[in-house]
Write a structure and sequence with these properties.
The structure holds 3 protein chains of 3 kinds.
Chain A: H1 2-28, H2 37-42, H3 45-54, H4 61-73, H5 88-123, H6 128-142, H7 145-159, H8 175-201, H9 204-211, H10 216-230, H11 236-253, H12 259-269, H13 272-300, H14 302-310
Helix pairs in contact in A: 1-4, 1-13, 5-6, 5-8, 5-11, 6-8, 7-8, 7-11, 8-10, 8-11, 9-10, 11-12, 11-13, 12-13, 13-14
Chain B: E1 3-16, E2 19-32, E3 36-40, H1 47-55, E4 62-71, E5 74-75, H2 81-87, E6 92-95, H3 109-120, H4 125-138, H5 144-148, H6 157-169, E7 175-179, H7 187-204, E8 207-212, H8 215-221, E9 224-229, E10 232-238, H9 239-244, H10 249-256, H11 296-300, E11 305-307, E12 313-315
Parallel strand pairs in B: 3-8, 3-9, 6-7, 7-8
Antiparallel strand pairs in B: 1-2, 1-4, 4-5, 9-10, 10-12, 11-12
Helix pairs in contact in B: 3-4, 4-6, 6-7
Chain C: H1 2-10, H2 19-23, H3 32-42, H4 44-66, H5 98-134, H6 136-150, H7 154-164, H8 169-196, H9 199-206, H10 211-247, H11 259-268, H12 275-302
Helix pairs in contact in C: 3-12, 4-5, 4-12, 5-6, 5-8, 5-10, 5-11, 7-8, 8-10, 9-10, 10-11, 10-12, 11-12
Classes of the chains: A mainly alpha, B alpha/beta, C mainly alpha.
Amino acid sequence: MKRYIGIRIIYLILTLFIISTVTFFLMKALPGTPFDEEKLAQLPQEQKQMIYASYGLDKPVFTQYVNYIKNVAKGDLGTSFFYTGQKVKDIISSRLFPSALIGLQAVLLGLAIGMILGIVAAYRHNTGWDYATMIIAVLGVSIPNFVLAALLQYFVGLKWGLLPVAFWESYPSSILPSIALCVGVIALIARFVRTEMLEVLDQDYVTTAKAKGLGTMRIMFQHVIRNSLISVITILGPIVVNLLTGSLVIENIFGIPGIGSLFVDSIKMNDYSTIMGITIFYSAFYVLVMLVVDLLYGLVDPRIRLASGKG
Amino acid sequence: MNSLLEVTDLQVSFYTYAGEVQAVRDVSFSLGKGETLAIVGESGSGKSVTSKSIMRLLAKSAKIKNGSIRFEGKELASLPEKQMQNIRGKDISMIFQDPMTSLNPTMTIGKQITEVLRKHQNMGRDAAAKRAVELLNQVGIPNPEKRLKQYPHQLSGGMRQRVVIAIALACNPKVIIADEPTTALDVTIQAQILELMNRLQDQMGTSIILITHDLGVVANMASRVAVMYAGKIVETGTVDEIFYESRHPYTWGLLASMPKLHEKSDELQAIPGTPPDLSDPPKGCPFAARCPYAMEICYEQMPSYTEHTGTHRAACWLQDSRAPKVERPLAAGGER
Amino acid sequence: MPQDTQNIDALFKPAAARPDDKEKISRESVTAFQDSWRRLRQNKAAIISLVILVIMLLLAIIGPWIGHHNYYDTDYGAVYQKPNADHWFGTDKFGRDQWARIWEGTRISLLIAVLAAALDLVIGVAYGAVSALLGGRTDNVMQRIIEILTGIPSLIIIILLMMVMKPGIITIMIAMSITGWVNMARLVRAHIMKLKSQEFVLAARTLGTSTSRIIWKHLIPNTIGIIVINTMFTIPSAIFTEAFLSFIGLGLQSPMSSLGVLINDGFASLNTQAYLLLYPSIVIVLIMVTFNILGDGLRDALDPRMRK
């Protein structure tokens, strides 16, 4: 088990290193600079040099690269080009709360509704419940989240005036974006749980449980649902991707000061260091989630737990 | 012998997109107290479906179309599901074919045994755990206290089948249905499991319905045999009657295809052909197409049963007085 | 009745051999393809989706020509017109005809998605097949590479690539395929690995069938199913990615049209001209839904064991 975690962590570091490298050179390959070209041209040569030097841009690319990797390893993501003088790390952490709140709400809501829908659909296989769930699931994966967000904003926010449409003022501001984000999660989970549970219902051990004379509800909760939900952990990876992607556009649509909108703004502003910082932040988050998912799965499923315990 | 379980004219069909498949067609038999009845036949003959019908564990696509299943005077075929749950696991329990898949992989052995005790015997946690240890001892599992806390994958196939038997025995059932209990096991383990079942039956006087395709197992275990083919019982009798006096050509074929150790024979005898398609069963005898003795009548009409003794009957036109006399072949126990 | 008894008595004679009966199978046999097609036809939702998709495809091809205007001509005399007899879907802030722009956009979006899916298919199938067929050390190295690639959130890489490259149909397609093929490669490899150890392949090998024949006659025909199914799901996700990129300003730029560009423009004037967002949204949702349902239907039809 320890050996396994060790290998996984080496992979994690390797992945992050590759991402940092790719990001760095992609940013270097970008046309133009983060500075206002016209103003910069008017400045005397010396001042220009000073500005470049203050960002370390006067050194050869390779030296810049080595310095950058060294700093990233120390947890220093550099200084923003746009928000002058601010550390990228600080900007990210100041934007963390809204994104985390919306993301968490979306995951919890999505998990709860998705599981219930999936379980009901499988339990009432080939009935109206099942078909309704499948329709929701197909729509959920098919409607682009930004289209859904825009429509929610237009109808719920503007036309009916039920909830705040934009800006981060009070708790209700987080409701619409959370709903827009969780629909994809609901669809993913409902579909997965349904398939998984139908599979479990076909297993011999469910027949054994029936042959014991156990009640339907007891069989469902003790044997079927438990075993179907264990593997939901395995799709947490795709769900996290879904949320990260969604947050990029949804935070923009609803004017939420989170990391997603920061990322899109940085792209528009050519704020290289912030783009690189968020890329690494997102990647690290994603890779960590995948690691946790793996370890959790081993904890929850006795077959895996014991198999790796021996090795 | 007063009968405990009485199945009469049972008809079970599966409804698939290709149409109705008549898996069990007019099956009747009875099971006495303390008796072991073997139901023998090749795969698809309807023997498993029959046993699942008794437990009312048929798949959703299957339906009991007709017939009755009487257990101690109660009609099981139409019993409400709630009452059926009180019979399953308590009065009638079941041992399944594959011990690798018939136990819940994420639940401890202990929990899987105690849950049936707690359901039917109203036992508390501790009483149930104590009884579970007894049961594991009874089925010959060493170290029962430790095993209770383990998960199925930590046990070998033979050990798991012992656990499955322990679960079936837990509430001292009157009938145990064993559906191919040894098919998935190694030959050496098979013998151990059969011996265990024999011993437990002697101790507890349980009746057993043994579903199998293996005549060797039948000879070891059963007192009576029903031979099934294409959803019908074609011959039934005591073990001796089936092994030494059989009347149906299909039974002869089964007996002849059994490998024999003490007889030197160059080849195994197989029954040529395949069973009929039960979505469109033939109007005559289902075995006619494969039967070396088939007559014109066999294709036209299903023969009725001919009684030979009080326990032995067969459904075959050869038993009709008008039919030519056919000698039972040597390989099927015929006279030398 | 004596007559009947007579007849029945006559039947007690050995039957003439009926060799056909032994092997007779009462249902006619069908090829795997016919069987799949029959199952697909029974799936009403999938067939309706197929019909809608074909209609959308036709409109994407001929739509721009059956309206009264082309997709790029501006007309400042007719800005923000609500849908009417002349402009069936209204006009945008430059007075461009939305009908023509939507179908032009649909065509571009579909084109990008199909090209990206095709590129994924070629790279993914080649990589997966080579990895599975060569096995051993090569497979090991190739799998480690895939493992690292799957650790990277692909959309982030696509965004970075789009920043570097000039926005265009080809660049979007390339950016999507740089990470997109991994999924196909994994599926194909896993499937071939499974097939390789299955008995019918082992049997073919035991009978002395040549390796190339095993690949062409056993492995490839049995892998086509999952390749088709996976492609059916790649296309809608590529349509989504294109729209997503355009929406955050990294995709195609006006006056070019794509569903993403249109939704982005529509969102900008959502408060006053909701129809500018509504129609392209309906089109994109219809395409995504029909592709997903058709993909599900194909999966059920091609692999009935997976049917749920």
